[in-house]
Design goal:
This protein is elongated. The chain is built from four helices and no strands. The chain is an all-alpha fold and 138 residues long. It has a single domain, classed as Hemerythrin-like (Four Helix Bundle (Hemerythrin (Met), subunit A), Up-down Bundle).
Length: 138
Amino acid sequence: MKQISEEYRTGLEKIDAEHLVLLDLTEKTRKLLEDQNMLFKNDEICTLLAEIKDYTVQHFSHEEAFMESIGFDGLEAQKAQHKVFAKKLEEFYEAVNRVTLGNQDDMIRELFNYLLTWLHDHIKIEDMKYARFANAKA
């Protein structure tokens, strides 16, 4: 089984497994960007956005329930950040209607960079706060 890299490891097995899926979806975005054999990528962009949306809804729900169960006082801040992410995904969804052969890679690059930055900052900074809290309580 694939393991999450040390820099993203929270020490919370279920959360780490879910983060690994999100990192894999980010990698899938990179591969779509680099695919030079595919002419028009609109359907793949839509499929990828749907996968990301579906999975983040599930993950955020699990994460928020876990934070609530341990009494983490940063829950509301996390929920707000999750809403910002969901709103940005919706913006990408709306932008797909304007994707052309000439700008599709720019959109995929923007999505990839957003995912990479968000996951890096969110997991390594924000999620580590509740992970430390949970591990200290254990």
